[in-house]
Amino acid sequence: MSRLPFYLLTGILLVAGIALSIHRHIQFEVPWTPGEQRQVWEIEAQVNFSAQGDPVLVDMALPSHQQGYRILTENTASSGYGLSFLEDQRGRRAQWSTREAAGAQQLYYSAQLLVVPDGRPREIQPPPLPDNIHWESPFASAANQVIEHAHQRSADPFTFTRELVRDFTGDRQGENARLLLTQFDRTPLLVRLLNEAGVHAREVSGLLLEDGRRRQNLTSWLQVFGEDGKWVLFNPRTGEQGRPDNLLLWEDRGQAVLEVQGGINSNISFSMIQHNQPAAAAVRNQLADNTLLNFSIHSLPLEEQALFQTILLIPIGALVVVFLRVLVGIKTSGTFMPVLIALAFIQTTLLTGLVGFLLVVAVGLVIRSYLSHLNLLLVARVSAVIITVIGIISVFSVLSYRFGLNAGLTITFFPMIILSWTIERMSILWEEEGPKEVLIQGGGSLLTAVLAYLAMNNPWVRHITFNFLGVQMILMSLILLLGNYTGYRLLELRRFKPVTED
Amino acid sequence: MWTTPGKLRAKGIIGMNRRNIRYIGRYNDRHLYPLVDDKLKTKLLAHEYGITTPALIGTVATQFGVKHITDMIAGLSGFVIKPAKGSGGKGILVIERVEDNVYIKPSGARLERVDLERHVSNILSGLYSLGGTPDVAVVEALINFDETFAEYTYEGVPDIRVIVFKGYPVMAMMRLSTAASDGKANLHQGAVGVGVDIASGTALRGVQFDRPRTDHPDTRHELASLRIPGWETLLTLAASCYEMTGLGYLGTDMVLDREHGPMLLELNARPGLAIQMANGEGLRPRLDLIERQAEGADVAARVAFAQQHFARSGELQPTPLPQSERLAADVQDT
């Protein structure tokens, strides 16, 4: 009988599990440890305009995922307006519309952005060069001279841009530059000159993020494309090359940031605030893309997520049980009963859980020993034990509440059917094998439950199991491997010792 | 207090994990388990194959029938009530004598009719069965055990466990009940296990609670002189259980009846590992040897093979007379 398929299966599970986890770590920046803090920016854009009583259409550019920033959530507030999000060649846009509006109007858009330290720049298709750039007569020669001047002192599109911007800045600002600036705005002019010189470039709008700033405006930047498709940002005011770390590109397609039809005096202003939050919370807020690889519990509603957080821990408890039974050889009463007890411990905390469990089982055993004299059928007897357990739990809850011990109330988290069966089993064990065996099996169950609790309640384990579904595959392969173990159990080394003493 | 895996491996000891995966998992088909987990089925099957078992007095299958238990046992001086699907000796009630409607256990405990009825009712509701499923109570004739063992046991009937692997008897031990085990023959409850030589049926070594013993803790009788009469018949009986059940790794529990000789008491598809302790030797070398044998040998050939290859001499210090007897027996057997 070949074991090859078995090892193949476990190998595939292991590799797939690790690969999925690493994919989630790298692609979605899910950290390995729960304690890590992540920087999150909350940005609010406020659109103001005066409506004229006609139909209004407001079209605003929206930021998208980009180098350094990932959008977690976005919200809008705009009473009386219809809203739709569009994504086309003009980039992501929000469109508000209403049939009739008059007076001052305010529309709000807010977004939460996660700061991602090591994002890569996105590949963008360079914009086409305009076919024909027309200059009025005095400006044509000025433009030509400026271009010629910069061209002589440059080697490629990027150095050309730097030289060009410098010619429009500070001391180096020449006569030609001053002439051109009387007719054109600075950034559109620079784009026009760059295009004239055959360089792919456009104007983009960005927001410089500073904590706690209000009424900020977008600044315009030059996006210049090299011959190999790479692009670089330039500050059109200083000629500085490169993207500042705190720059969020709001509009990166060379389109208008805000277009308002049916309104006048429109403007857009921004306020922002920065805060740190635990990485796990930041992950939870990530927008779910509907791809298979992003198959994630986080796409479920919050209530179901909380449920899954517990469910995904059960394999950890199962692994502890398998480990203790197969490798150590501990006897438990009921194979997975310790896992259920451990789940209850998570709700009650360990000490109150242990005390409560021992109290309920001890009192239950006393009452059960009386029930065994009544000569009842099994199902009826266990049902009677269930009711007894409920009674014990109620009495303990009330008593502990009267004495001001609120921790005692958590006793209700114990699964009562499981407790009843435990009492029934222990009672039979007591009658047949004596109290020693009850201590061995009961102690083994409790020890297993405590170890399973410690494993399941570990913050790191909770974080890993909840955020990396691939871990379930790794656990599966580990359990499969343990199920294949034919060696000795730890306790057998003691049990069989006399045989080796001859 | 602890030993090393290397030492255990050198002794050929097999552990639980290896037993479960390598032997039970591989040689015992799941669908055959009911044949041995249900003692009633085993009994009927054994009857078909001509294997002697304790006489069946009757069965109780319904709570309604519980009231008729006294009719069933009327006039009997002793009987045994057991759950058909019980495990590990749980729920077996032995009544040795009946005096004026009082039922007396081997320990001397006296039971009333209601106690009997409650026990049967408990059996039916599945208290002793695997997984708590509803069960059937089986009433059997009491075994009149061979008086030669009277000195070796306390209260209960000593039984003989033979591990049968692919039809070959590979290892055997006798289980002697003690006061500590409450008359039960389960080693983990405190019964004495005596390793028995496959070739001759003589004692090799005794253990109680996994520690070596040379005498019975209650009767103080030394174990070295223990010798099982009708050994070859017993081995043949055990080995033929392979054909009967089809289970490759089987524990057969036999008893010796005064009149009927060796009898099959029950079968176990998951026999324990304590037999290795009683024999002072691991099962592994013997199982490995059997695995190398060709299939298809008949019962007599398998018993002969086992007797030839698994002969051991005891480490107990025997009294001079039984030793000469045993030597003679060894010469005859080989």
From TrEMBL, chain A:
Location of the 7 transmembrane helices usually fused to an inactive transglutaminase domain: 256-499
Domain Inactive transglutaminase fused to 7 transmembrane helices residues, every copy: 23-182
Membrane-crossing segments per the record: 306-328, 340-367, 373-396, 403-423, 438-456, 468-488
InterPro entries, per the entry: 7TM_transglut (IPR025840), Transglut_i_TM (IPR025838)
Nucleotidyltransferase among keywords: no
Keyword flag Glycoprotein: no
Entries under Pfam families matching the protein: 7TM_transglut, Transglut_i_TM
Entry keyword set: Membrane, Transmembrane, Transmembrane helix
Protein's recorded name: Gonadoliberin III
Organism: Litchfieldella anticariensis (strain DSM 16096 / CECT 5854 / CIP 108499 / LMG 22089 / FP35) (Halomonas anticariensis)
UniProtKB/TrEMBL annotation, chain B:
Gene Ontology cellular-component annotations: cytoplasm
Entry keyword Zinc-finger: no
The keyword Nucleotide-binding is annotated on this UniProt entry: yes
Pfam family, one: ATPgrasp_ST
Parts forming coiled coils: none
Listed NCBIfam families: rimK_rel_E_lig
PANTHER family: BETA-CITRYLGLUTAMATE SYNTHASE B-RELATED, RIBOSOMAL PROTEIN S6 MODIFICATION PROTEIN
Name of this protein: Alpha-L-glutamate ligase
UniProt organism field: Litchfieldella anticariensis (strain DSM 16096 / CECT 5854 / CIP 108499 / LMG 22089 / FP35)
